[in-house]
Amino acid sequence: MGAVSRNVNRLVMIAGLAFGTMALAGCDSAEERLAKHVASGEELVQDGALAKATVEFRNALAIDANSVAAHSGMAEVYEAQRNYPAMIAHLNKIVEIDPVNVGALVKLGQMMLLGGQLDEALANADSAIAAEPKNVDALVLKAGISLRLGNTDTALDFAQQAIALDPANPTAHAVLIGERLQAEDIERALAIANDITERAPQDMGVALVKLQVLEKRGDAEEVGAYLQQLVERFPDQVSLRSALSRWYAERGQDAEAEAQLRAIAEANPDDSDAALRVAQFILAKQGDEAARAELERLVAEKDEKTPYQVALAQIDYEGGEQEAAKTRLAGVIQDAEDAGNSADANSVRLMLARFLLRENARDEAKALVKTVLEGDAANADALALRAALRYDDEDYSNALLDIRAALASAPNNPQLLLLSARTHLKTGSTDIAGENFAAAMQAANYAPDITMEYVKFLRLDNRDDAVLTVLTQAVRAQPGNEKLLNALAAEQLRVGDWAAADETAKQLAQINSESSIRVRAATLSGRERYDESLALLDSLSKEPGQSDGALAAMVQVYFKAGKIDEAMDFLGGVLAENPANAQALMLRAALNISEKKTAAAEADYKAALAAAPTVAPPYLALARLYLREGREDEAVAMLKEGVEATDDPSGLMLFLGGYYESKQRVDDAIAQYRALFEARPDSLVAANNLASLLVEYKADDEAAKAEAAKIAGSLRGVSVPAFQDTYGWVQYQLGNYEEALRYLVPAADALSDNPFVRYHAGLAYAALGDGAAARPHLEAALATPDFAFADEAKAALATLDANQ
């Protein structure tokens, strides 16, 4: 490992581990052999021969399983290979053998800090300082952890202690910089960064800290100039060239951006990913033909052609030449087989299978996956694809078998973990689903889509208290992600944490000024400072291209402030400029409804419908208005029209099903919910409503009962009272009375005024012979006038009386 490479990791890793010294004089033969293996391993590590070094250290451990030096060597090998779990295992062994081994304690603490395990990291730092109070690395570690924990005074104290012992220590200075950045004292942070850069100009870690400060300062030109300096200083650092390429691209300097990517590829001629990044950039900037030419050149020049042929197939496929793409992939598969490269052949087979799935050619795709698994039963990608196919086929038990097998070789694959979560959710294993969602999110470093799916799960599981924590962690991991910042702000506003929402608005301001203003306006409105909120939104409304969200926010603040006339005037001005603004029409209609001006509201809703005939809100708003006025036939006609006309009719279908249900048109409601469930099989609401009606009104129909049981499986374990009632009632109908009560009792507690839920709980208790518990539920159901199952409830009570 060269000097620059060591410096890259200096801010997060110690320079080396403490190796046990061995007095070779007078050793017996076992000790001599142990020392030789360790010394040879250390030399091989320095030469970069990690596989051979591993053999030497393992030979040493075979002689003495408690050799600190051998475990240290193995930890260093695994660190170089980025196999951090294995590295941590050896570090833990060192601490077990030698509890005061400061090097291992510090390294463990650093790994825990990087992984966000702050309490564990702090414990290791404290142990190291207790063993060696003036160890600079331990002091710096304690300072860094304290800064992350928000203990600023402690962080500064330990950083200063480290600097007193080692005035040029870059990591200690980085803590001082971090503290100043937290305090938004950018200039002082930059002054410290400049100082340590001058002290250690060839320290890559120091350079990156200064780059972070410059980015925080917000002067893009200054950042670019510094990146150019760093590329000249560290020409072999891919990450710096990549960052400079992005900087050029953001400014439209495509030739310069491409040059940096080409420099990376030329410096790493065997790295196909580097070459493909050049082609991908050309594709984005110059189009298909230019990218195709680049890839054809690579196919002609490179010995390993498969990655470039595959990329050409992707361009063919996305460009509408599907048959050409599939033919090309078939040729690549044959070439790989002829060359005896089954791994490449299988990889391309799976890519071809994914293409086929996009065309709904499921049988052909399944055949390709089967071929892969026949030759390589443990192929994680093939297992994952077969699991996804089985999931789509609702074969959840076999899908889980494939997922478990795939995770055995790819335990941190986010997509596998996500599929596992979804599958466990379908089978009702909510606790496991939650664990898998969390693991997938962490493995993906809080990728927005996965994070938001986990948030949706938490809300469904009535764990709103965890949502804020998850979103806060996600924003910490992805500080510049607009989707996550907006979600965090919305949650902070929901719980009324105005100060926290203001802080999030500051972060949003660097990405999307409109979102930031809307959040700030909402915090002012939440504090009932309506005029200030309106002033902010008014400034936003004057910006070109204002969004519907900004418009709605302003009207909402007017409404909360009781300024209906002002809101009407504002919307009138918007509509004067654009009479077909559907959002403004919908908002004005809502204000008219609040003022009981029904005719005016209807006119606005119809105008909105004419302006936006493919979206659902105008249809739904008109249907609701008609129902309030008793115009039921018109309401149903409007809903049916919307179902046919809109891009996403799911909300309309759900509302129509609910209307039919309220009118005791059970067959119509079942048909509507079934259509919705077929269109949206992931909708738990659709599943609940359909299963509920089937088991409630079609209990004598074995086919309907079986359908209900299958559909309700996805509701198992979900802590929503209505879902608990449905699942529990299905279990009752299947004769699983104890399982039924596990769900019906909490549902009845939460929905004590619902006669159906009380009736279900009463019958389940009665079926188990607990008349005392059954009676109050059945009596509560009968207390509701015109209860649909009054006769059945009375019969159950009569049976209880007879059995007393």
Short summary of the structure?
Keywords: Repeat, Signal, TPR repeat. With 804 residues, this protein is mostly helical.
SSE diagram, text form:
Elements: H1 3-8, H2 29-47, H3 50-63, H4 68-80, H5 84-97, H6 102-114, H7 118-131, H8 136-148, H9 152-165, H10 170-182, H11 186-199, H12 204-217, H13 220-233, H14 238-250, H15 254-267, H16 272-286, H17 288-301, H18 306-318, H19 322-338, H20 342-358, H21 362-375, H22 380-392, H23 396-409, H24 414-426, H25 430-443, H26 448-460, H27 464-477, H28 482-494, H29 498-509, H30 513-526, H31 530-541, H32 548-560, H33 564-577, H34 582-594, H35 598-611, H36 617-628, H37 632-645, H38 650-662, H39 666-679, H40 684-697, H41 702-712, H42 721-733, H43 737-750, H44 755-767, H45 771-782, H46 790-803
Signal peptide: 1-25
Keywords: Repeat, Signal, TPR repeat
Protein name: Tetratricopeptide repeat protein
Main pleated sheet = none
Instruction: Give the number of helices.
Output: 46
Number of strands: 0
CATH class division of the domain at 706-804: Mainly Alpha
| Helix amount | over 70%
Which structural class matches the secondary elements?
A: mainly alpha
Detailed description of the structure:
Keywords: Repeat, Signal, TPR repeat. It comes from Pikeienuella piscinae. This is Tetratricopeptide repeat protein. TPR repeats lie at residues 102-135, 136-169. The chain contains 46 helices and no strands. By secondary structure, it is mainly alpha-helical. The protein has a domain at 706-804: Tetratricopeptide repeat domain (Serine Threonine Protein Phosphatase 5, Tetratricopeptide repeat, Alpha Horseshoe).
